[in-house]
Design goal:
The protein is mainly alpha-helical. About 70% of the residues lie in helices and about 0% in strands. Helix 16 (about 270-280) runs antiparallel to helix 17. The longest helix is centred in the C-terminal third of the chain and has 20 residues, at about 320-340. The two termini are about 25 Å apart.
Length: about 350
């Protein structure tokens, strides 16, 4: 239904002054963020923002259900300007005090490059005591702004924490280069949550920290987390499997790296890329080229990271002609496909 509406096959015919006129627009904006798109144009994060413009042009009145999807869209596109404009619309319509809207505002400010003080200002202006969701949003905003000390202090002062809180801090520390601190926070999570099944996002963040720790300690920690996956029979999705392959690859354990790759249930391009980079960086250039051919045979479209690994393998193996061939193919053939 959303596809028919957005493609113009069906036309909305609602009274714009009716309070329910915003409902179909809200549904469409939400659908564009959740439902897999059938074309590249409908995947664009700006689509919900265009729907919002259409709603305003028809006289529709946005409500508290309108802005969370729009703010999530602004976050996905990284548009700081869009976040500011949407905040102004929330204030104009008296919706900024709504807890659901305010939480989305905090998250959007954190993910669109705004200073952390903007997210904190929205957080401080919330009516009543802050709930766990809004605290997690501010924690995420502090981490994305690189204010890791402030994030750690805020985390310690939180009245309650859930797996999202721990994962947010672990991933923020790892992203900010504080890999050892990320592992320490993860150990604290394990001690305080014995028996609770770990979420995929938490495990991915920990593998990222382990991959970037020099020496044997990072590898040992990564292998311990891998053992946890095996012991609890956790399925290696593309997201989780890629992190595991990358961890073993960065520590030069190619045997474990290839074994992990083989058991990933549904491989994605990122999974292949992790394997290719591991092989190219650790003296297995010819094998990397073979895997690249296998990747193409299985119908995966190489992306920029794929070619980075491929050209690195060609350079290290002295395969100048092969490297030039694929460089020209990248520019002439694949670059055009990436546009579509």
């Amino acid at each position: 239904h959303a596809l028919l509406l957005t493609s113009g096959v069906l036309l909305l015919d609602l009274d714009p002054q009716c309070s329910s006129a915003a409902f179909p627009y809200n549904c469409l904006a939400h659908a564009h963020l959740r439902v897999p798109a059938v074309s590249s144009s409908s995947r664009a994060p700006s689509t919900p923002l265009r729907l919002f413009s259409a709603m305003l042009a028809r006289g529709g009145r946005p409500n508290r259900h309108t802005f969370p999807s729009l703010l999530k869209s602004a976050s996905a596109s990284g548009s700081a300007a869009a976040a500011g404009v949407l905040h102004a619309q929330c204030l104009r319509r008296g919706l900024a005090a709504d807890r659901f809207v305010a939480c989305s505002l905090v998250s959007a400010y954190g993910r669109t490059g705004h200073p952390a003080r903007d997210a904190r200002k929205v957080f401080d202006e919330m009516e009543g005591a802050s709930d766990l969701a809004s605290c997690n949003a501010l924690l995420d905003a502090l981490c994305h702004a690189g204010e890791l000390d402030a994030a750690g202090d805020f985390f310690e002062r939180m009245a309650a924490r859930d797996p999202v809180s721990w994962t947010t801090l672990v991933s923020g520390l790892s992203r900010g280069g504080r890999h050892w601190c990320a592992l320490e926070v993860f150990r604290g999570f394990l001690l305080g949550n014995m028996g609770r099944r770990l979420q995929e996002a938490t495990l991915v963040s920990v593998f990222s920290a382990c991959a970037n720790l020099d020496g044997g300690e990072g590898l040992a920690a990564g292998m311990a987390v891998h053992a946890y996956l095996v012991r609890h029979e956790i399925e290696l999705t593309a997201f989780l499997g890629t992190a595991l392959v990358d961890m073993y690859g960065k520590h030069g354990r190619l045997g474990f790296c290839k074994s992990a790759f083989e058991v990933v249930c549904k491989k994605e391009v990122c999974t292949w890329n992790a394997l290719l980079l591991a092989l190219a960086n650790h003296g297995k250039e010819t094998e990397a080229l073979v895997k690249f051919d296998m990747m193409r045979v299985e119908g995966f479209l190489p992306n920029q990271i794929t070619f980075l690994a491929l050209l690195a393998a060609c350079a290290r193996a002295g395969l100048v002609e092969v490297g030039l061939y694929w460089f020209e193919a990248m520019v002439a053939e694949y670059k055009e496909q990436w546009r579509h």
